[in-house]
């Protein structure tokens, strides 16, 4: 639509509206058409549109007018409901690496075939509705606004992560080598050629003060069959021990275990969940996969080291990992000191003192514990004493450790914890009326009670079960197949029936036995056999198998091929 000057348009409209005669109105319309370069019909439509209440900005083309929908309110609600269903199907495939939404064409097909939508939908209509509801592909892929991390005091939350150093590698002799590769292919080729090993930088950041701690690890892969060492429980255990224990260097006051450990879902930290529980009830939290910025403070420290510090010390050589870690210690102390992070961390400990641990605490929480097998009495034998565990763990392996109160605790393969009962196995006696002793400490677990309920329910299911539940006849009521295209198969006859009631069946048997058709016989022979069969059928009403055998014996001695050759010669 051509855009018009609103003030000039309004002047022409007012003059047209107040014109005393049709001639005057037409003259004013022609002047407006000439001034705006439009036809008289176009000017008339705009005058009439403005006359019935349309906005001046819409009539003059300054903004687009909203087209009124032809759908009533109920239809609009149904459209919106079905649009949401279509959106759910479109984005139902957002899983795996680099997920992509389902195409609108396939999504509509699924929705129709499953009976989830009733209204007619086209791809363009569906896309338009999704965009209107804010469910377009761009909106769904856009990130939510980030949040900042804040904690009320020191050691409330520690963020932990690990990443590969960009310029330092270990050679097979354990020496640190400096390399700088342009792309991943160069790195893989050089690592394979020179047997280089990646160096991993582990980082921990206190969320309240932003105090950070770095340490480098490297070496051969721990897991059999793995190419690289990667993040692993052994290195994380050593790293957290160095970070949380009091430091020998008095320039670094940072110590103590946190209330929460926040990280990704890496396999290295998963193996420490039980150790965290035993080491001061530390709660382990993870963020959503694929969102590293969720732990921004620790990601920033790793990024600063890799992108700023490593290039700055590119000319520095380190003999081994010990020298590299000496540099990391100096760097962390220097940065935390001049930035005031240490002072802020110490100030935060006044509100809530840190929870200091010792080497023995760390050992007690992380040492490999004893394994035992639960015997037939639901007990384990530990240091010449029998401890009761649970009624439903017979034959299973459990791991034993002591909690903070000194109780012996058994952990099953599912991670369930049981405080061991020093009273040992259950017992019964006639002196007690065959009542089970220690029954109050041998209670059924929720899983045992659930299994009992399922057994009772299984009995009911067995009674009400019918074959129709598995193979319902209703599914076969309307099932029909057309006969398959087939060719009849004939096999050579062996035994003749006791009698033949017609000549045709007798001939059929003779042909199958002789492997020759009657049309291939000499005419005289065919007429003789036909006459014999007709007379038998006329006299006796049937043809006996004895007569058929006699005819076959005669016909078997005739060489039909020689007779055919003679006829052809004649």
Automatic annotation (TrEMBL):
GO terms for biological process: DNA integration. SUPFAM superfamilies: Ribonuclease H-like (SSF53098). Residues 168-361 form the Integrase catalytic domain. GO terms for molecular function: nucleic acid binding. It comes from Leptospira interrogans serovar Grippotyphosa str. LT2186. InterPro entries: Integrase_cat-core (IPR001584), RNaseH-like_sf (IPR012337), RNaseH_sf (IPR036397). Coiled coil: none annotated. This is Integrase core domain protein.
């Amino acid at each position: 639509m051509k855009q018009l000057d609103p003030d000039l348009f309004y002047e022409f409209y007012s003059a047209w509206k107040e014109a005393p005669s049709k001639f005057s109105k037409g003259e004013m319309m022609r002047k407006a058409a000439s001034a705006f370069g439009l036809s008289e019909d176009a000017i008339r439509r705009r005058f009439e549109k403005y006359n019935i209440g349309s906005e001046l900005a819409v009539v003059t083309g300054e903004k687009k007018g909203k087209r009124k929908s032809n759908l009533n309110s109920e239809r609009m609600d149904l459209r919106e409901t079905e649009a949401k269903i279509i959106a759910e199907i479109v984005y139902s495939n957002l899983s795996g690496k680099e997920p992509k939404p389902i195409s609108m064409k396939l999504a509509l097909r699924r929705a129709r075939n499953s009976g989830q939508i009733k209204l007619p939908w086209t791809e363009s209509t569906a896309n338009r509705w999704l965009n209107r509801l804010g469910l377009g592909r761009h909106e769904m892929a856009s990130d939510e606004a980030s949040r900042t991390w804040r904690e009320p005091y020191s050691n409330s939350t520690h963020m932990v992560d690990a990443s590969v150093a960009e310029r330092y590698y270990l050679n097979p002799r354990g020496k640190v080598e400096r390399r700088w590769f342009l792309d991943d292919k160069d790195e893989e080729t050089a690592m394979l050629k020179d047997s280089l090993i990646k160096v991993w930088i582990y980082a921990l950041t206190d969320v309240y003060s932003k105090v950070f701690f770095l340490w480098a690890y490297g070496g051969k892969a721990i897991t059999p069959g793995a190419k690289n060492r990667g993040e692993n429980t052994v290195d994380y255990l050593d790293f957290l021990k160095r970070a949380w224990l009091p430091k020998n260097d008095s320039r670094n006051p940072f110590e103590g275990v946190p209330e929460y450990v926040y990280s990704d879902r890496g396999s290295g930290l998963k193996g420490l969940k039980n150790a965290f529980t035993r080491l001061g009830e530390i709660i382990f939290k993870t963020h959503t996969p694929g969102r590293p910025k969720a732990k921004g403070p620790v990601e920033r420290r790793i990024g600063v080291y890799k992108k700023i510090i490593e290039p700055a010390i590119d000319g520095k050589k380190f003999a081994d990992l010990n020298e590299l870690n000496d540099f990391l210690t100096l760097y962390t102390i220097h940065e935390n000191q001049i930035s005031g992070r240490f002072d802020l961390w110490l100030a935060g400990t006044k509100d809530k003192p840190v929870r200091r641990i010792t080497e023995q605490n760390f050992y007690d929480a992380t040492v490999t514990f004893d394994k035992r097998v639960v015997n037939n009495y639901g007990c384990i034998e530990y240091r010449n004493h029998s401890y009761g565990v649970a009624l439903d763990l017979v034959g299973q392996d459990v791991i034993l450790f002591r909690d903070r109160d000194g109780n012996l605790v058994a952990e099953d393969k599912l991670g369930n914890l049981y405080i061991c009962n020093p009273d040992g196995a259950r017992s019964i006696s006639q002196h007690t009326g065959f009542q089970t002793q220690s029954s109050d400490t041998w209670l059924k677990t929720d899983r045992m009670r659930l299994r009992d309920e399922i057994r009772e329910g299984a009995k009911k299911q067995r009674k009400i079960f019918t074959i129709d539940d598995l193979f319902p006849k209703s599914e076969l009521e309307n099932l029909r197949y057309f006969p398959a295209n087939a060719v009849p198969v004939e096999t050579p006859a062996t035994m003749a029936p006791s009698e033949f009631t017609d000549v045709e069946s007798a001939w059929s048997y003779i042909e199958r036995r002789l492997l020759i058709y009657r049309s291939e016989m000499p005419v005289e022979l065919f007429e003789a056999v036909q006459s014999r069969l007709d007379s038998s059928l006329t006299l006796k009403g049937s043809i006996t198998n004895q007569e058929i055998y006699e005819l076959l014996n005669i016909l078997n001695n005739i060489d039909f091929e020689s007779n055919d050759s003679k006829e052809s010669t004649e």
